[in-house]
Amino acid sequence: MTATATSLLAPRTHEYEFGGPLGALFVSITVPCTMYYFVFGCNEQLGCALTLPVTDWDGFAAAARDTIVTGFTDKAAWFIYYGWYAYTVFAWLILPGKWVPGLPLRTGGQLQYKINALPTAFYALGVVAAIIYNYGPRAMATLYVHWPGLLSAALTNAVLQAIYVYVASFRPNKLLALGGNSGNVIYDWFIGRELNPRIGLFDIKTFNELRPGLILWILLDISCLCYQYVRHGFVSDSMIVVVLCHTWYVLDSLVNEPIIFSQMDITTDGFGFMLSVGDLAWVPFTYSLQARYLAFEPVHLGFLGILGVVVVQLVGYYIFRVANNEKNEFRKGNNPKSMYQCADETFVT
């Protein structure tokens, strides 16, 4: 490879983010620990008080020990999780979808991406509905029961994928991320060395962005709802609001799938542990914390409470969606709110 080609495909990174290698190592350790803490620090036996470690050290230690051991010995949970991941890959492969181009790469080309995350979710939700209809809510509550094992399986998947894409990035002619080629193994593994790691047409980064973790978030929410019904004999209004708001957010993201191709995660960042653990583990297992808490500690909001939540949700959604759409248009070269417009090659205000 010539010096010119090297400077284009694999420029050396000279500036660190996230505190450099030590910061990358710190985040790589504390993120999984935080997710496990949410499991053994917020449960039916010990509650969810912030003072939990201080008030009940023995119970906390026992719950932590049991959670971690269970997480890596629960064969059913691992089978469920990797069966789920295999389904999302299979759905990407066989379900019809439009191929759309991403933004131009710095090498001048454009990658093609398959759009079918929404039908992937619809088929999954259809299966969930069939399970609940035929076997009752107890069957779907299985995800809640096997939570530690599912989390451990997801974390393992995130680590293995980060290792794979890091090793694969050393193959010839790989386009590396501008910020992920420092030469430090820990930092580059965390940030992501290759910009668009792929297996054939299968783009690992964009696939993980919307499918296995984001849709799993909703399935975990539904499982919590089913568990609340099985345990208490009813579903609280707060649980319904949480599940509907989360589902709305996820389905909106899937409907607007092409927008992610202009976002920084896709255009600039490499795919390393930072994104793999976020997509595969952090999103589904921390964003569903509200539903997990409500599963064993129902909260009744009442009409005014529901109204307040819905108003905040609508305002937040409006800001989020309008801002994202504007950013997407700008990154594609359109700027609808520009002070200048080009007409007949003359700029006018």
TrEMBL record:
A single BP term in Gene Ontology: ergosterol biosynthetic process
Lineage start: Eukaryota, Fungi, Dikarya, Basidiomycota, Ustilaginomycotina
Record keywords: Lipid biosynthesis, Lipid metabolism, Membrane, Oxidoreductase, Steroid biosynthesis, Steroid metabolism, Sterol biosynthesis, Sterol metabolism, Transmembrane, Transmembrane helix
Gene Ontology molecular function, alphabetical: Delta14-sterol reductase activity
Transmembrane intervals: 20-40, 76-95, 115-135, 147-167, 301-320
Gene designation per UniProt: ERG24
Membrane topology (UniProt): Multi-pass membrane protein
Enzyme class: oxidoreductase
PROSITE patterns given in the database record: STEROL_REDUCT_1
Subcellular location: Membrane
Chief location category: membrane
EC number(s) reported in the record: 1.3.1.70
Gene Ontology cellular component annotations, sorted alphabetically: endoplasmic reticulum membrane
Protein family: Belongs to the ERG4/ERG24 family.
Protein name, entry field: Delta(14)-sterol reductase
